[in-house]
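Appendix C: a fully annotated inverse folding record. The material below is reproduced so that readers can follow the format used throughout the book. The structure is listed first as tokens, followed by the designed sequence.
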């Protein structure tokens, strides 16, 4: 580590942040800790964002692996005409909860929805609910956030910063609270190349920014957003950095852990491999590639794709909650940060992902693919623009023309425009590398009992990437698109049909070029014959060389 970076870490540590070495020192002599399931037995847990991707997996894991947990209070808002009870009921009937249902058919009795709205003062929690939560909650997992990269700054501040501030206010009213676990992102400080497990000074004091933004018109805020976020790529990473700082400011009054996952993907092991329920992040990219819609993407094939399975994140969260609560009397009041990443421990690159995703979807194709899966990753802007024109826009125009002629509404160009926008938001993260320190993650793993290491496994050194990507692709087919695996033979037949169409089209194109351009020009014919004869000579030379070698 450079002298400059060592100095920086000393400065940060002096202002209250805790490194892995500090954490290990704090835990010395504090043995006799109960196991993770024993700790959560009899505990009341408050979860925000419970109906989201990570929240669902957290709820399922707590109920299945900590069966003696007393109660789960879920902050939920009505949405799309559904009440909070309906949303929770729909959530717990999905396949994710099948294993819990087998073990305890009445598990829903431990789940208590609480009406809440993150954009409202006091999170819109009623007085009676505030009183009840204040009296009984032992652990808080704050998962709720907007993950849209292009969210307007004002809304991102409300959801990611102000809501966190108000939840902290509620937490300070809870006399029995033992751990506040805040979910951030590994990219909160993506303007740095090396990221330690510390809270970095924010680009601006969050409270002052909130006060300033409140009275500004939305159009003005939109205009000044690029200047405010500076060298961060979007409002998501910017507001998550501000939220971390707010959480850290309460470390004297609350026992805090901050989890920073990188790119969260499908489950690795639990409750079963490959479960995913949304198009966010890599899932949408994988599906677009499997459907043959995505044919090119701008990324560095040698850059590390820092994927992290969602069950790894959840296991680390539960372990961090246990560690924070069990060690709170034996360590200084400092927020402990855990970089939940894979790149520095078990790296896997974007070029490898491309290969394994294409291979998986050719073995287990998606139904009614637009074209055969065949994506090209390049870091060159001009090459990428060429492939967008040839492989995206040109086929989309032809397809929409066919739809128009058949009396249908054109849609493919609109789909590609949305795809290009989504891919453009990911380019920043797929074109470069970061180095994350993960000493606290390793330290926490060493604190677990052998049984807890199996039950709450977050050791990414054990992760087999090709197998994981294969399960991930199958998971998008089964759980996102709801396709039946028994229909794979028909999907393969469809791919063969697409292959034959491509071969026919290419043959007709060659014939057309020959008849229109080459056959009518003596010079073009001479060039054509010269190229063909050169190829034959090269092949003859190669064959002769192989014969002599043998």
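Designed amino acids, in order:
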């Amino acid at each position: 580590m450079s002298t400059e970076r060592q100095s920086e870490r000393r400065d940060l540590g002096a202002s209250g942040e805790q490194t892995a070495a500090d954490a290990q020192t704090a835990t010395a002599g504090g043995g006799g800790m109960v196991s993770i399931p024993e700790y959560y037995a009899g505990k009341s847990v408050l979860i925000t964002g419970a109906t989201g991707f990570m929240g669902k997996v957290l709820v399922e894991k707590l109920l299945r692996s900590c069966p003696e947990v007393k109660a789960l209070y879920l902050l939920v808002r009505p949405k799309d005409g559904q009440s909070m009870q309906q949303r929770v009921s729909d959530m717990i009937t999905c396949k994710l909860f099948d294993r819990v249902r087998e073990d305890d058919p009445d598990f829903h009795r431990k789940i208590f929805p609480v009406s809440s709205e993150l954009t409202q003062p006091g999170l819109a929690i009623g007085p009676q609910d505030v009183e009840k939560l204040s009296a009984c909650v032992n652990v808080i997992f704050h998962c709720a956030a907007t993950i849209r990269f292009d969210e307007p700054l004002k809304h991102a501040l409300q959801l990611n910063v102000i809501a966190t501030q108000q939840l902290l206010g509620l937490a300070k009213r809870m006399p029995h609270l033992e751990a506040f676990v805040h979910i951030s992102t590994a990219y909160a400080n993506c303007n740095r190349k090396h990221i330690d497990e510390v809270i970095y000074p924010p680009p601006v004091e969050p409270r002052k920014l909130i006060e300033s933004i409140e009275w500004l018109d939305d159009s003005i805020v939109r205009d000044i957003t690029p200047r405010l976020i500076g060298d961060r790529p979007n409002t998501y990473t910017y507001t998550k950095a501000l939220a971390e700082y707010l959480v850290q400011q309460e470390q004297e009054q609350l026992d805090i852990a901050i989890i920073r996952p990188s790119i969260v993907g499908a489950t690795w092991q639990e409750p079963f491999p490959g479960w995913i329920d949304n198009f966010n992040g890599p899932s949408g990219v994988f599906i677009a590639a499997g459907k043959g819609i995505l044919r090119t993407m701008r990324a560095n094939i040698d850059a590390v794709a820092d994927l992290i399975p969602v069950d790894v994140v959840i296991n680390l969260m539960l372990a961090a909650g246990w560690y924070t609560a069990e060690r709170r009397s034996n360590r200084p009041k400092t927020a402990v940060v855990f970089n939940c990443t894979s790149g520095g421990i078990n790296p896997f690159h974007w070029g490898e992902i491309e290969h394994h995703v294409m291979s998986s979807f050719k073995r287990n194709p998606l139904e009614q693919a637009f074209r055969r899966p065949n994506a090209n990753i390049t870091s060159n802007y001009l090459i990428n623009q060429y492939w967008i024109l040839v492989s995206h826009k040109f086929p989309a125009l032809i397809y929409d023309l066919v739809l128009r002629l058949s009396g249908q509404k054109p849609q493919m160009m609109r789909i590609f425009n949305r795809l290009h926008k989504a891919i453009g938001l990911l380019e920043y993260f797929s074109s470069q590398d970061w180095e994350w320190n993960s000493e606290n993650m390793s330290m926490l793993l060493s604190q677990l009992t052998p049984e807890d290491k199996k039950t709450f496994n977050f050791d990414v050194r054990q992760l087999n990437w090709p197998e994981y990507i294969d399960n991930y692709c199958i998971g998008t087919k089964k759980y996102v698109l709801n396709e039946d695996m028994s229909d794979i033979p028909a999907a393969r037949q469809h791919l063969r049909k697409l292959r034959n169409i491509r071969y026919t089209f290419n043959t007709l194109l060659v014939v057309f070029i020959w008849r229109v351009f080459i056959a009518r020009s003596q010079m073009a014919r001479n060039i054509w014959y010269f190229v063909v004869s050169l190829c034959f000579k090269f092949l003859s030379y190669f064959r002769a060389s192989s014969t002599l070698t043998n």
